[in-house]
Amino acid sequence: VLRDTLEKRGALGQIKARIRAEVFNALDDQSEPRPPLSHENLLINELIREYLEYNKYKYAASVLTAESGQPEVPLDRQFLAKELNIVEDTNGKSVPLLYGIISHFLHGGKEESTQNTLPKVSLLNYPKQNLGKPTTERNQK
């Protein structure tokens, strides 16, 4: 009955997430140096952190920060938008930048309204180690 009650209140999921975060922190070897973050990975991690915190996934955000070596203090949103060449309108500032990016690509960059204005970006400009497995490998799985 207690488990069902905690589940209905959403507390059980939060407790499990907190336990996972604490276990990760206990197992994380702080003496082993993290590989340096590339500029692209720093920006990507920050977009993800902003999204996680906006949606109140605070334990996921804390694990991301600890595991990635991302600075504890989040990057300034205006700095992030400037680095990504994003021009925000007043409506776009109320949600994470990642929402505007996704909206832009879902609408084929053709929306004419209050969405973020985003640049066309080619993934060919990024080093392969930042992109994960090649598309053909991912599609086969």
Automatic annotation (TrEMBL):
Organism superkingdom: Eukaryota
Primary localization class, coarse: cytoplasm
Location within or outside the cell: Cytoplasm, Cytoskeleton, Cilium basal body; Cytoplasm, Cytoskeleton, Microtubule organizing center, Centrosome, Centriolar satellite; Cytoplasmic granule
InterPro entries documented for this protein: FOP_dimerisation-dom_N, LisH
Keywords: Cell projection, Cilium biogenesis/degradation, Cytoplasm, Cytoskeleton
Keyword presence, Cytoplasm: yes
Xref: Pfam families: FOP_dimer
GO CC entries: centriolar satellite; ciliary basal body; motile cilium
Domain FGFR1 oncogene partner (FOP) N-terminal dimerisation: 34-104
One BP annotation, GO: cilium assembly
Family of the protein in this entry: Belongs to the CEP43 family.
Job description of the protein: Involved in the biogenesis of cilia. Required for the recruitment of PLK1 to centrosomes and S phase progression.
Protein name per UniProt: Centrosomal protein 20
Source organism of the structure: Charadrius vociferus
